[in-house]
């Protein structure tokens, strides 16, 4: 395993622990089954598709952006907190990903990255950009 793969796996493990995700929640975020997450989190090496690696990178980037925006306590809780704003309409960002898969994860990443650079006005939907 390369150093980059080791660092990515460590960052994902740290995020799962920080957000207090169970195996099924971690699986929803990166698009794999709970049993695979269990193996994945306990393994020294990972052999996953580029799609899963891309989702792991998104999760790690979301955590980094949240850590820039909010207090440590809020940053750790944000993914599980109900959110009244668009597009969540009362559900948590984690629940949003469960219902929208990788496009939902990507939307959250765009949102928190915008916040991290000081844009709290909101994030355009993809349809508004075309």
Concise description?
The chain has 130 residues and is mostly helical.
Outline the structure in words.
The chain has 130 residues and is mainly alpha-helical. The chain has helices at residues 3-18, 23-30, 34-42, 50-69, 72-77, 93-116, 126-129. The longest helix has 24 residues, at 93-116. The radius of gyration is 15 Å and the shape is globular. Mean pLDDT is 86; it is low at 124-130.
Mean pLDDT: 86
Oligomer: single chain
The total strand number stands at: 0
Largest sheet: none
Overall geometry comes to globular
Number of helices: 7
Radius of gyration: 15 Å
Helix content range: 55-70%
Order of helices and strands: HHHHHHH
Distance between the termini: 40 Å
Derived structural class: mainly alpha
Which stretches are low in confidence, meaning pLDDT under 50 for 5 or more residues running? 124-130
Note the beta-strand portion: under 5%
